[in-house]
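Reply to dn_fold:

You asked what the input looked like. This is it:
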Amino acid sequence: MKYRANIFLMASIIASISLTCISGQYKAKADTNPTCPTIKEQPFKLTRIAKDTYVRKGLHQIFTPQNLAAIANIGFIIGKTSIAVIDTGGSYCDGKRFLSAIREISDKPIGYVINTHTHPDHTFGNQAFKAENPVFIGHENLPRAMADKGPLYLNNLKRLVGEKAMADTKIIQPTKTVSDTMTIELGNKQLILQAYKTAHTDHDLTVYDPKTKIIWAGDLLFAERIPVIDGSLLGWQKVMDQLAKIPAKYVVPGHGGPLLKWPEALAPQKAYLKTLTKDLRTIIQKDGTMLEAQSGAGQSQKKAWVLFDQSNPRNASTGFAELEWE
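and this is what came back:
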């Protein structure tokens, strides 16, 4: 992967040491679409993390009717001529609130909607942006993943979040795909998109902004909330080594943050996946069962992660199935 040499860090980031919020938060106006429920206790908030760069931090929750599936980090970058949106939220209603928040800040055309992978908390807001006529971009495997898994995800979210909250949510396929790397133009800046081999999923994509030295990792990086394996336990660890070579200084993870130091932010996830791998191999070597793996593997990491009990058993099962045939 090649990156331009003459890149500089935005003064707004240099001025901030804490990295938690550079300029403040922006609240979107209430959504007037009658199909979308109003959730007063969870207003849509944007955090400005660099010049013309904003993030909505997702909630550390499972899907519920109260959160509109707004559990993932989503954001956007404003260029001289257009805007790039990076993931769109977990429902049409979540995406609608996101678009409303963007329009309070800029009226520039939305040139691109980039989906980092197919999981519904990152892609089910796409429908809210369709009328903007952007180029929808994803990994070359994303169309197949959306076709295979999208209907199941949608049915599950209608059950978990509710028919009203998921009303008008549709599966929107990418119109452009990335097989290796791709550079897109926003006028005064370029964004570098990178596709990866199987890791968190088999269709992960990152977005790198050389001007701000911020990488948008999608769910290739979890912070605070426990990682979820939907691809390969071993593959994910290899991809993290590849990610660490990107000359970024900050990262927006798919969950947590929303802005962390890079590559230091990789350390907790590396520790968890390494521990899980070691524990699973020990259980397998002793002819242990998957049930034993679900209850025993990774337990020393429990205090480090939110929602550990909800996702660690699944991770152990996925990893067990992968490692038992090494």
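The first strand starts at residue 25 and ends at 27.
Hope that clears it up.
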